[in-house]
Amino acid sequence: MRRVSRTCRQLCQYSLPDLPKLEGINKKLLIVIQGPTASGKTGLSVELAKHLNTDVISADSRQFYKEMSIGTAKPSRDEMNGVAHHFIDFTSLENPINVSQYAEMCNHQIQAIFETKNYLVMTGGSGQFIDAVINGLDDIPVYPSIQNQLQSFLTLNGFEALRANFSSLDPMGFERTDNLNPRRVLRAMEVFMGSGKSIVEFQKSPRTNDRFTAVRFSIEWQREDLYSRINQRVDDMISMGLEQEVFSLLPQKDSAVFNTVGYKEWIPYFEGVATKEEVISRIKQYTRNYAKRQTTWLNKYPDLQLLNPYASESLCEQLLKYRGLDNV
């Protein structure tokens, strides 16, 4: 992934290169805004969709659920600003959606929108879900007997012991996987133990997509600034009633979806073994860790275009210059 200088002066001078127009390729354009949490994806996606007179496709796998709003930073009606959003609040925790189901539903929705529009905005931090829509699902082997062995190990020894083994066994997979998610860790370890290859190796071969052209963008903040934004967002969530939202979901705390940063950290608090201050501190730390993993995930995209939040031009203006979209 292309890196920009870390000095303020150079950051403010940075801009996207001039790139070819859309001539000669599929004119249906999916504009993907992805990257770490709290980087400003929602605001940019709405502004862009308003300019292009189109819709927004959500690729945040936690915003799918009606019960999870504050802790997922789900956009409010005011923030949506009249732009149609798809795949927000469309299911419940009782009916979880996996990446395969999302990819199928999302591709149907994209096809329907492209019947009347030439542009569409997709935004979210769930890189695996985005990749499944654009490139299809990877053909990753399954090893049921190893699944059973790993599940038994997890039950007997706990998740931290499983993570430690994962880190030692497959450092590359550990770095590029959501290693705080038991389901993802179990799956990655299963693949490595069964095939001798990191799950990352199976995710490196994108397939040809002739349905539309996808272009990817990410907003690149300096780390300290991104972390400050994350900390402020968590404080805002607390003020908005995150504690009450999580408490109302405790009957569903065994749901795999509940294993989400901002939610799972409250369980020790409600069990009387952690203070509220400790919970908030952990949420901030784990969210920063999650943002780091999201940034690492972006390294796999050689064509990713970085938007500069320190430039004189707005993020939307920078993006619209790409392939002449400022003339749309």
Describe this structure in words.
Helix 3 links the parallel strand 2 and strand 3. The longest helix is centred in the C-terminal third of the chain and has 23 residues. Helix content is 47%, strand content 8%. The N terminus is likely disordered. The two termini are 28 Å apart. With 328 residues, the protein is of the alpha/beta class. It contains 15 helices and six strands. The chain is globular and about 60 Å long. It has a six-stranded parallel beta sheet with strand order 3-2-4-1-5-6, with helices on both faces.
**What's the quaternary structure here?**
single chain
Number of helical elements: 15
DSSP strand (E) fraction? 5-15%
Task: Determine Rg (CA atoms, Å).
Answer: 20 Å
Largest sheet data: 6 strands, parallel
Write down how many β-strands occur, each being a DSSP E stretch of 2 or more residues: 6
CATH architecture descriptor name of the largest domain:
3-Layer(aba) Sandwich
C-alpha end-to-end distance: 28 Å
Spatial order of strands in the largest sheet: 3-2-4-1-5-6
- The helix/strand order is HEHEHEHEHHHHHHEHHHHEH
Q: Which bin fits the share of residues in helices?
A: 40-55%
Structure characteristics:
47% helix, disordered N terminus, Rossmann fold, 328 residues, single chain, six-stranded parallel β-sheet, alpha/beta, 2 domains, Histone, subunit A
